[in-house]
# Entry
Amino acid sequence: MEFRRLGKTELTLSRIGFGAASLGDVYFVIDPAEGLRAVHMAIDEGINFFDVAPYYGKTLAEERLGKALAGKRENVVLATKCGRYDVTDFDFSASTVRAGLEASLTRLGTEYVDLLQVHDVEFGDYAQIVHETLPELARLKAEGKIRYIGITGYPLGMLARILKEGPVDSVLTYCRYNLMITDMDDLLTPVAQQNGVGLINASALNMGILTARGASDWHPAPEGLRAVGQHAVKYAEQRGVRLSNQALRFCFDHPYVSSTLVGMSTRKHVRENLEALADTSDLEFQKELRRIFGEYFNYVWPSGRPENCDAQCTVETFLEKQ
Ligand code: NAD
# Structure
């Protein structure tokens, strides 16, 4: 397994990270015993980075991950989140993120997490996140309950703006860098890199769009994007290519991302996704996929409060002149 340091932190993350949202039955109802075995297999095979949140399955994912990590906590880099608790339940106040962390620690069976991330910042008030939430996380860090501070979200401009202002060690975005989209590199990557902030890339399979099962009902992508995703799945089948391998390989090759998170809940997927580490990019195949995606390549859907969207954000807004 290859490991990369997360920005300026002392954390080194496995190139492939275990996205634990799946453990909360977010994609389909899983067999919890198999989910536990998948976690154990991942650890045995060298995956050390686990990402979860109280929101995933309304605490179910944290509960299941906590059980699976019993006796193994010190072998992993554990990240969870705060501020988002349900589809429309957001609270970024200092008291709630503190209480939320305490509840997460209990479920996860640990006294600290390596990374606490403000979850989906675009659903919050920018000023509150910068002046109330992040300072509270800084206090939790000083108290030793968390080792590092992160932010997560979808609109790249807001993430870039916050990481420049707050005490932020890492930033996680999702569905902004995979076979269907690469715009993370137009804005967030250079800003994170210039500021020495670690970068985590989530949803290599575009939250299920690039799988035979397809996207779940809750997926925010429009019908056309889902359809070209399924077209890609069929094309890969015809060519005898394992699409998940190509999707993961593409993400693993990113020069700055520390870890690519993939949602897993079965040993089969853990095994397959580890095999992707040894695969190589099929550039002809990827070129054909771009043709299939057509106008849906680099498609961005709305997320969060309108004032937090990316309108008029360019990379020049955020980069310091060298
Ligand atoms: P993903 O793109 O990783 O897709 C997950 C889906 O792909 C699941 O249905 C899973 O069963 C399936 N899958 C995994 N490996 C497969 C394989 N080899 N073959 C076929 N299907 C396979 O999406 P995700 O799970 O949403 O993202 C990964 C993780 O990133 C999450 O679990 C979470 O930890 C994190 N994340 C965070 C945020 C945020 O903070 N806002 C948002 C999205 C994701």
Summary: Residues 19-22, 27, 51, 119-120, 152, 172, 174, 202-208, 211, 213, 244, 261-265, 269, 272-273 surround nicotinamide-adenine-dinucleotide (CB under 6 Å). The mean pLDDT is 96. The chain has one domain: 3-213+242-281.
